[in-house]
Amino acid sequence: DLPKKFLFVTCGDWDLSSCLPRQLHYHKQSVPMIYQRWINIKHAFRALYKIKPLGMTHMLSLLDMELIGRHHSGIDDCRNITRICCGMLQDGWEPKQTNN
User: One GO MF term, please (predicted)?
Assistant: First the structure.
């Protein structure tokens, strides 16, 4: 079952918990199962390091990484979130769903 084999990783819950459902509701569509489970990297970061991150740039800084590209550019944010995930994996992180 595809939705159980992977999770999207977000920096915050808003995109998948609020924005996408509202947009789909406007178009009289339901939220596909694949978008109902995700990892909020801020929650995962806090659980692993016991530090509440202020955002993506803060997490990068705490991992001794610099922001690559422009903050809030979709593709650049994806690349930076991926870098955060890689750093966390090296530190023993085991990815798990964070939304309820």
Answer: 3'-5'-RNA exonuclease activity
User: Contact 41/81 with Cβ under 8 angstroms?
Assistant: yes
The pLDDT tens digits of the residues spanning 37-63 come to 999 999 999 999 999 999 999 999 999
Q: Are 38 and 9 in contact (CB under 8 A)?
A: yes
Flag whether 96 is in a domain: no
**CATH for 56:** 3.30.420.10
* Alpha-carbon gap, residue 28 to 60, rounded angstroms: 38
Q: How far apart are CA 91 and CA 99, in angstroms?
A: 22
Query: Is pTM, for the whole model, over 0.85?
Result: yes
**3-class secondary-structure state, position 39:** strand
Residue 58 CA to residue 81 CA, distance in Å, equals: 12
**Residue numbers of the domain that contains 24:** 2-90
For residues 53 and 61, what is the distance between their CA atoms, to the nearest angstrom?
Answer: 10
